[in-house]
Design brief:
heterodimer; A: 289 residues; alpha/beta; Glutathione S-transferase Yfyf (Class Pi), Chain A, domain 2; Rossmann fold; 2 domains; four-stranded parallel beta sheet; 11 helices; globular; B: 198 residues; mainly alpha; Fumarate Reductase Iron-sulfur Protein, Chain B, domain 2; 58% helix; binds iron/sulfur cluster
Chain lengths: 289, 198
């Protein structure tokens, strides 16, 4: 296993609605023997709301600079939007020769040399830790049918992403190792959940998320697995609102990638925050053998 | 809608191209690949990114900036990924939205929809605390989007009462969500806002 210590960027939802993602990420890395060093005094990445790219670069340069000063060369985040913002900041550092000085001129705290690689948690697990290592560590089997939902930024844009832009499969591989069955879901895997429109055009966002849940249900999925707090918010926390809006029953458990992986690694469900998902995950926990 | 040729602003495309994110606009050759794969167009056919680009290239500045459509992009990157001309449409939409916000502040146009209000409210929280404070965000957004404190709070309660209850029951409404989780060196973030601007 190549990595033993990583900078960890939790992102804002980790303290509120995505607390179970933070818990399960920490538990999984602890179990794998990889130290996570939380970026000291980290700030928000700007999410999808910071429209000015220069603002995005500045916000993320501050976080990357903190990790760089701690001599860490890789930063992991469990949020796809944070990953996108960190990765495009690094890209801008490579392509725009003047950026480094412009950032430093804002504040010395933004002095960053571009040396910290930004990685999504799924990328670290599959490509840094590696499938062979994960296979060796699996203690439990989870024979359930899974709809793996990737959303936008794991593969798009492909100059930044780490998976296929249209038909990603990194999470599929882990789910299969865990004894799960991946349902045919390639049409939906990377289709947007509508998250960025949640507050301003919830009618559109609800429809987009409902289509994802409907497709999973139609193909017999026992649960959806996702690795982004915004997707999770739409699919899990908002699922009762979607049910009410469209007058349907969905009752589709939505687990974080680190939660299902943690179950397979034999971690206690409480430690993975499985009692914090809005739609009950009991049916999945009961199938773990 | 007939195009009023005498009202076209031929400099609009240059204005967009000069914005970070808008650089690719001149490369568009109108193939529609972006629009065909857009998940928003699929649900709302009036949303047509190719058309927004063509209108911008023609100089239909006011029509573009006052349209509801520029606020509909979900930033999913499907179009940017597929565009044969590497136009980076979602970044381009962002550049157009920033021009719209600026022109609206100067009183030259009227913005459609509430996304500008939401984005502003989001950035205000970030500027103040360095992190997202969701309750602060919702309070500011609802107040402004619904034209006043009481109307805003009523609307917020309607939308959020159930979600809040759900979070509360699952122990996700602890002190960390009730109060802003301020970073230590907020001064550094304030400096970013001072020097870069929103
Ligand atoms: S895909 Fe690219 S070139 Fe084709 S219409 Fe869209 S922006 Fe223009
Ligand atoms: S980024 Fe925006 S315009 Fe492009 S496909 Fe996604 S929603 Fe449509």
């Amino acid at each position: 296993m190549a990595v033993s210590k990583l900078a960890y960027y939790p992102g804002c939802p980790s303290e509120t609605h995505a607390i179970e993602q933070d818990m399960s990420t920490k538990a999984v890395f602890e179990k794998l023997g990889i130290e996570l060093v939380e970026v000291e005094d980290w700030n928000c990445c700007g999410a999808a709301e910071a429209e000015n790219p220069e603002m995005v670069y500045a916000l993320n340069a501050r976080n990357l600079a903190i990790a760089e000063r701690d001599n860490l060369d890789m930063m992991v985040t469990s949020c796809s939007v944070c990953f996108y913002n960190l990765a495009r900041t690094n890209e801008a550092y490579e392509k725009d020769a003047g950026l480094k000085d412009r950032m430093k001129a804002i504040d010395p705290a933004l002095e960053y040399n571009g040396s910290v690689k930004a990685k999504h948690v799924v990328d670290v697990i599959v490509n840094e830790v590696g499938l062979d290592e994960i296979k060796k560590r699996i203690e439990k089997k989870i024979p359930v049918k899974v709809a793996p939902y990737y959303g936008c930024y794991m593969g798009r844009p492909s100059r930044l992403g780490f998976d296929d832009p249209d038909n990603p499969e990194t999470m599929d591989k882990i789910i299969e190792l865990l004894g799960g069955e991946v349902i045919p879901y390639s049409q939906m895997k990377a289709k947007c959940c509508g998250g960025p429109l949640m507050m301003t055009r919830s009618d559109l966002a609800f429809k987009m998320s409902k289509n994802l849940i409907d497709a999973a249900k139609a193909r017999g999925a026992d649960c959806i697995v996702t690795a982004c707090p915004l997707c999770h918010m739409m699919l899990d926390a908002k699922q009762p609102d979607i049910e009410e809006t469209f007058k349907v029953k969905l009752e589709m458990p939505v687990l974080y990638f680190t939660q299902i992986l943690g179950l397979g690694l034999g971690i206690d469900p409480k430690k993975l925050g499985l009692n914090k998902n809005i739609v009950s995950t009991k049916a999945i926990e009961e199938k773990v053998i | 809608m007939a195009i009023k040729t005498w009202e076209l602003d031929s400099n609009f495309k240059n204005e967009i191209a000069a914005m970070p994110g808008g650089e690719g606009i001149m490369k568009c050759f109108q193939c529609s690949t972006c629009t065909v794969g857009c998940p928003i167009t699929e649900l709302e056919p009036s949303y047509n990114p190719r058309k927004i680009i063509q209108m911008s290239l023609l100089g239909m500045k006011k029509e573009v900036l006052e349209s509801e459509e520029i606020w509909l992009c979900a930033v999913c990157q499907t179009c940017s990924e597929r565009c044969p001309q590497d136009v980076r449409i979602s970044d381009l939409m962002g550049a157009i939205r920033r021009i719209a916000e600026k022109e609206a502040e100067e009183g030259k146009i009227e913005l459609k929809g509430v996304r500008a209000i939401f984005e502003k409210a989001f950035m205000h929280q970030l500027e103040k605390f360095g992190r997202m404070y969701e309750i602060g965000l919702s309070m500011e957004y609802y107040k402004k989007a619904h034209g006043g404190f009481f109307a805003g709070m009523m609307a917020m309660q309607k939308d959020y009462q159930k979600l809040g209850m759900r979070f509360f029951k699952k122990g996700k409404m602890g002190p960390k969500s009730m109060f802003p989780d301020k970073i230590k060196r907020t001064g550094e973030v304030k400096k970013i806002f001072e020097k870069v601007g929103e």
